[in-house]
Design a protein that fits this description.
With about 240 residues, the protein is an alpha+beta fold. It contains 5 helices and 13 strands.
Length: about 240
C-alpha cells in the first residue's frame, strides 16, 4: 500500500485568516488554542507507558493521529481539502550541520560536519506566516490523511547531501500538525508545542465519536477550561 501524499506548503496564508481573527488570547485555556464557533470540545491525551516514558509534548504520535484522522474524515464534507499549520520554530525546517560523535580513544574527525539541507524551499522559509498569539506557523495544504506524512525526513536530507544512511536507521520522525482544519471548517484540531495533549473542536456528533473511539484516550472539555498541567494525574502510563 502506498503512503498518503505529503502536505504541501503554500505562500497564500489567507485561508487561515478566520483562525487568526477568532482564536483566544495566548494562555487563556482551551479557547487560546482553537478558534470560536464550535459547540463541543475534547482533549486527547498523548499516550504514555512505563516502557516509553511520559507522553510526548507538541506532537500526537502516529497511531492516535491516524485514528483521529479516521474519525475526523467522517465529519467533514471536504476531507480531500485540508489545511495544516506547522510551528516555524521546529528545529528541522532550517538547514543545519550534523554533529560528529566518536568513541573514546578514537581521534576526532578533522573535516567539518556536513550540512543537511532545509526541509522547505527558501521561498517558504522566507514567506508569509499564519500569525497567532506568541506563535507563527507555516501553512500547508493537502488531503486529511497527509497529516500523517508531516515530519523530519532525515534519510532524504542525508541523501541530498550525499551522505549514506543505514537501512536500520529510523529516517522519518513524524510531527503532527500544530493546527488542522478542513476547507468546510467543520472542525479544528490543535496540538500546542508545550502540551502533552491534543484538542479538538467540532460538532456534538464529532466529539461524541472522538470520545467513543477506543483507539483514543479522550475526555470532554469546555472552551473556557484551563490547560491542565501534565502532572494532573491523568495519563500517567500503563
Amino acid at each position: 500500500m502506498s503512503s498518503p501524499p505529503r502536505p504541501q506548503p503554500v505562500l497564500d496564508v489567507s485561508p487561515a485568516a478566520w483562525v487568526e481573527s477568532s482564536i483566544g488570547r495566548f494562555g487563556s485555556g482551551v479557547g487560546g488554542l482553537l478558534p470560536e464557533g464550535f459547540s463541543h470540545y475534547a482533549r486527547i491525551l498523548h499516550p504514555a507507558s512505563k516502557d516509553e516514558g511520559p507522553p510526548e509534548q507538541g506532537t500526537l504520535p502516529p497511531e492516535p493521529l491516524t485514528a483521529l484522522c479516521d474519525v475526523l474524515g467522517r465529519h467533514t464534507e471536504t476531507p480531500g481539502q485540508c489545511w495544516f499549520c506547522l510551528w516555524e520554530g521546529v528545529g528541522w525546517i532550517e538547514a543545519g550541520r550534523l554533529q560528529w560523535h566518536w568513541l573514546d580513544g578514537d581521534p576526532p574527525p578533522t573535516d567539518s560536519p556536513p550540512v543537511i539541507a532545509a526541509s522547505f524551499a527558501p521561498e517558504v522559509l522566507a514567506g508569509p506566516r499564519v500569525r497567532l498569539p506568541e506563535r507563527d506557523y507555516i501553512l500547508l495544504h493537502g488531503p486529511l490523511e497527509s497529516a500523517t506524512q508531516l515530519g523530519y525526513r532525515f534519510g532524504e536530507l542525508c541523501a541530498a547531501a550525499g551522505l549514506p544512511i543505514d537501512d536500520d536507521v529510523d529516517a522519518f520522525f513524524p510531527q503532527s500538525p500544530h493546527l488542522a482544519w478542513p476547507e468546510d471548517r467543520a472542525w479544528c484540531v490543535a496540538t500546542e508545542i508545550d502540551l502533552d495533549s491534543t484538542y479538538v473542536a467540532g460538532s456534538e456528533k464529532l466529539i461524541a465519536a472522538v470520545l467513543a473511539d477506543d483507539r483514543l484516550e479522550a475526555l470532554p472539555v469546555e472552551r473556557g477550561d484551563s490547560l491542565v498541567a501534565p502532572s494532573d494525574g491523568v495519563d500517567q502510563g500503563t
